[in-house]
From TrEMBL:
InterPro entries: Aldolase_TIM (IPR013785), Ribul_P_3_epim (IPR026019), Ribul_P_3_epim-like (IPR000056), RibuloseP-bd_barrel (IPR011060). It comes from Curtobacterium luteum. Belongs to the ribulose-phosphate 3-epimerase family. Keywords: Carbohydrate metabolism, Cobalt, Isomerase, Manganese, Metal-binding, Zinc. Binds 1 divalent metal cation per subunit. Its cofactor is Zn(2+); Fe(2+); Mn(2+); a divalent metal cation. This is Ribulose-phosphate 3-epimerase.
Amino acid sequence: MTIRISPSILSADFANLERELHRIETADLVHVDVMDNHFVPNLTLGLPIVQRLQEVSPVPLDVHLMITDADTQAPKYAETGASSVTFHFEAATDPVATAAAIRSNGARAAVAVKPGTPVTQVLHHLDAYDMILFMTVEPGFGGQSFMPEVMPKLADARAAVDASGLDVWLEVDGGIAVDTVPEAVRSGADTLVAGSAVYGGEPAQRIADLRAAATAARA
């Protein structure tokens, strides 16, 4: 199982985002949180900034939409050239159709679930998605503590993905650091979002530390 590290620029210096992107060149992806102050009580980046980040980023964009009206908006973010676009299951009226629209615009289609949202309906349509994102904090703010109670849900998804033979990535987002990586990886995560755990120090070293923790957890 390949482990991917996706640093979140929510913890980066917003006044110098191009520089901050180049500080994580050793990462596999860059996690771009889009919040609209409606679906979550915070406001961050929007479509024009994502378009510009796509033009200058040395690593593929992993866009996470924490916004309402995902059915309409998600395909527009796929049009930017982002590698992956994640929308929230709770914000879509037709998640399968929304995922198909993302794919048709050239991006990997991903669906996110909040800590309290069952993953059952997502697993019933595994072939519709390229990734499932498990929020291990309540969405909307960085710096929260990891919620281990989400791990059984993640483990269920890992079992379903492995049984299906499909190439569906399982991503965790929230409270991910060297000390929480082992539990997430052992529960089935293969894509790790980390904000302050990367940007809170020297990013290349922090990314290497996360990889080492993930490798050790798989041993």
